[in-house]
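Here's a chain:
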Amino acid sequence: MSSYTTDSFFDGKIRVMQNRRGYRFSIDAVLLAYHAAPRTRDKVLDLGTGCGIISLIMACRRSDLRIYAVEVQTELADLTAANVHQNQLQDRIDVLRMDMKILTPQMTSGPCDLIVSNPPYHRSGSGRINPDAQRAIARHEIKASLVDVLQTTRRMLRTAGRFVTIFTAERTADILSQMRNEQIEPKSLRMVHSNRVADARLILIEGVKGGRPGLKVAPPLIVYDDKGDYTAEVQQMFEHNTLND
């Protein structure tokens, strides 16, 4: 049996190889890729890209982006590169096999317009650490902490550039305060609920480097309907909608 699986998205327009037993992306990445809403000819930085799914979705939706996908784990970085080539997106996505903490703007031909990240949700040492190293690093602050992500964002993002992330709702205060510490002003927040009666599990946040204070709280995003199926809004996020004019 192969150690990888291959899944198709957007009516087969994206094919993604993933580790069968190691790190596998979740719906969180799809929600983030949709809400990032890259703009015309944005230079995008994807911090902690995993298998590259967020970069692949954004590149599939917009053909005018330049994306730099950063991954510190060698096996996952190689998997991202394989996915980029399999989808013939190597002219739009560069894979940087490195620790985000040593990134400099020179490595991306200058500051970026948009930075996205699906960072580890749990502090190092909190809760049970998954015995699988890839999953542990994806879920806990082992290789990179929230502070690392936001310090890298401050260093790599142009003034008035956007930072968009998805994070655990229970650490909302942590991320909002740390964003301000790094001069990334929170501008939009959306709570994500599994269903209409569940507490918020996740938050989607957008910030602007050097932005003025003023936070918009958007209507909640409900993932599943009463039948346990994706809601119409979430289902739309799995559809291929090219954003180029």
Summary: The chain is about 25% helix and 30% strand. Residues 74-86 form the longest helix (13 residues). The mean pLDDT is 88.
